[in-house]
Write a structure and sequence with these properties.
Order of helices and strands: EEEEEEEEEEE
Number of strands: 11
Shape: elongated
Structural class: mainly beta
Number of helices: 0
Helix content: under 10%
Largest sheet: 7 strands, mixed
């Protein structure tokens, strides 16, 4: 099957930067999209940024201009560069890998999350 693991979460001061990484491993797959979600205490999980297999990206309005999503297809890895971090960005960040092919692996695969804390 497929395993998804995030890394890079840390404690950072407001205005600082972090780079999150997410690697999908295990069974071989070809056609997929990857994205980042986050969930803060008391809130629903929300989409932060997504990148499709064809290269289209989408961002939440709250992070546009500050966050950048990128992908290394050879490594099945997606990155989230977060700049100008705000306290409201603090959350557990989850990586999603959505596989379209091969058919036997089609579905959504979530990581366990990585904690981002923004505080003085």
């Amino acid at each position: 099957q497929v395993q998804v693991e995030e890394s890079g979460g840390n404690l950072v001061q407001p205005g600082g930067s972090l780079r999150l990484s997410c690697a999908a491993s295990g069974s071989f797959f070809t056609t997929y999209s990857m994205g980042w979600y986050r969930q803060a205490p008391g809130n629903q999980r929300e989409l932060v940024a997504a990148l499709t297999w064809t290269g289209n990206s989408n961002y939440a309005d709250s992070v546009k201009g500050r966050f950048t999503i990128s992908r290394d297809n050879a490594k099945n890895t997606v990155y989230l560069q977060m700049n100008s971090l705000k306290p409201e960005d603090a959350a557990i960040y989850y990586c999603l890998t959505k596989i379209s092919a091969p058919l036997r692996l089609r579905g959504d695969y979530w990581g366990q999350g990585t904690q981002v804390t923004v505080s003085s």
